[in-house]
Amino acid sequence: MKVLLMKSLQIFFLLVIIFISNKNTFSQINNNNNKKEEKNEKSEKKDSVIISKKLRFTAPRIGVNLVPLGIWALDNRFQQVEFSAEIPFNPRYWVAIDAGQSTVIRGDNRQTGSYMRVGAVYNLWFEDKSKHGGLFGVGIQYGKSFFSQEISQTFQNTNFPAVTLTEKYSNLTADWLELVCALEGKISKHIYFSPFVKLKFLVNVSNKTKVVDIAGFGNNNFTKLEAGYRIFWQF
Hints:
Layout: H1 2-54, E1 61-65, H2 66-74, E2 78-90, E3 93-106, E4 109-123, H3 129-132, E5 134-157, E6 160-186, E7 191-205, E8 213-214, E9 218-219, E10 223-234
Antiparallel strand pairs: 1-2, 1-10, 2-3, 3-4, 4-5, 5-6, 6-7, 7-10, 8-9
């Protein structure tokens, strides 16, 4: 009986020791699991922040190109107004939209029409604009123009009065691509200044042999380099 009691006590103490050791092991496992869960929650929160930053829309900017207005003020033969809009959808990318209207009188040729461009710009300054107060972007735009042209020729004869003949071409269209490089500096809370350079490539133009000027593109060449200066207002 005494021997059985001793063996029972030994088994009891052995079970107690196993229980305590297993309890410590389980607590360590639970602690590790809790740490992993906390880490996963933090990473999920971090990922959610990153995802939200990737699609963080900000207030759009609208502006006007000052160079055509200055040329118009100096020379009434080149009348052009061009407006621009930019819609940032994260600190690195924004959608660029331009629209304008022009009338160009070059010699006996008169071109009148409207145009628009749309494209995407990539910001080479990766920080948020609120930290550095500016942007430096490169991008590509597609341009479309709708215009008409009049070509006048005057014939003179000593025996008769001068006669002027005018050829009219309506419903003309043109398509082109532009490589854009733009710098934008913040000069006040809502105002940005933006010098830019564009390299244009003419893709298509109707009645090419007769067209002299293309609204929004310029004179009828395959390539054209344009520099400008815009002022933007950000809402």
